[in-house]
Structure formats: C-alpha cells, structure tokens
Design goal:
The chain is mainly alpha-helical. The chain folds into two domains: 2-39; 57-131, no CATH class. The protein has seven helices and two strands; from the N terminus they run αααααββαα. It has helices spanning 2-23, 27-33, 35-39, 57-67, 70-73, 97-113, 118-131; strands spanning 77-79, 85-87. A two-stranded antiparallel sheet has the order 1-2. Helix 4 packs across helix 6 (97-113). It is found in: Cell membrane.
Length: 133
C-alpha cells in the first residue's frame, strides 16, 4: 500500500507540473527567466541611430570639393567655356560602387562651385563657424 500511495503522489505532482504551463501557472517564472526570448519579438534597434545624412552635408561636400585638386574636380563636369559647366550625371565605366552612389551629388556640387563667388562664399562661411568654437 505505501508503494502505491507513493506512486499516486508522484503521478499527481508530475501531472500538476505538466499542466501548469498550458494553464498559465508558470507565467511569472517564464517572464523572469526568459526575458532574452522576448528580445527576438521586436526588430533590433541600434543606439545611437545610424545617420544617413545631416543638415550640413551640402556645405561639407562643397568645402571638400573646393579643396580638391583641379584634376579631381574636372572628373565630374564638362567645361564647354570659361563660365559654362555641365555636371556629368552618369559615372564613367569602372567607377567603384560606393562612388556611383555619390556621383550625382559630387557632380552637382562641382557645377555649383563654378558659379561666380560660390567657392569663396563657402570657404568664408566655414571660417565664420570655426570662429564660434
């Protein structure tokens, strides 16, 4: 009789444990122990957020292009006269992929720098900002 009572008790305990999860009996334990599982439920966000652009980007591009050698700058425009400059919209064959993404912006910046006094104004605006720090 004691063996039978022992087996019945063990079966009752195991049955209670087996049915506890489907009935929600382990919710508190699961919530505390399995926080890592909940990380996979949401998309991953990285801090700080990746910046794809910033407010001063055109100014920085103008400054970089204005400081570049003439040979480099001439890759982005066609000069048909002293004051006539056309941007080259499509990069030449063999251009690296990361350059292809920036090519149209570089060409537009170089074309804009060839307008009267733009290059000088860009340099002066950066100098004024540097004096603030």
């Amino acid at each position: 009789m004691p063996k039978q009572l022992f087996y019945v008790t063990v079966v009752a305990i195991l049955f209670k444990q087996a049915t506890a999860a489907p009935k929600g009996g382990n919710v508190e334990v699961i919530a505390k122990l399995c926080g890592a599982l909940r990380l996979g439920d949401n998309p991953i966000t990285f801090e700080p957020q990746e910046e794809t652009g910033f407010e001063g980007e055109p100014t920085v591009l103008k400054l970089n292009m204005s400081l570049a050698p003439k040979e480099w700058r001439d890759k982005f425009v066609n000069r048909s006269g002293p004051n006539k400059v056309e941007p080259i919209e499509t990069p030449p064959k063999g251009t690296p992929d990361d350059w292809k993404n920036m090519w149209s912006r570089w060409a537009a910046v170089e074309a804009a720098l060839n307008k009267p006094n733009v290059e000088t104004a860009t340099a002066k605006s950066v100098q004024r900002r540097d004096n603030l720090y």
